[in-house]
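One record is given unchanged without comment:
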Amino acid sequence: MWSIHGFEGQLAVFNFEGSKHLLDIFPTPPNPDQVPNCDKNGVLGPLPGIIGSMMAMQVLKIITGLPVDSNQLTIIDTLNWQFSKLSF
């Protein structure tokens, strides 16, 4: 799973070898009126590439049998270039 908005991206590996599901951290979907819209708020061009490359690395790690970060949500703030990990 990945998500992008403005300067921020999020990624996590869900439902892999007994790891938790998206519904474990977000049990109810948000009201559609409260979900930010990229048409109005925008996303900087390089952000999808950064997050996409990070997700591709996770997929390659899964395919090759290397350890992946399970039950963790990684938040990338490209404005301040900070990375945070939240365990769930």
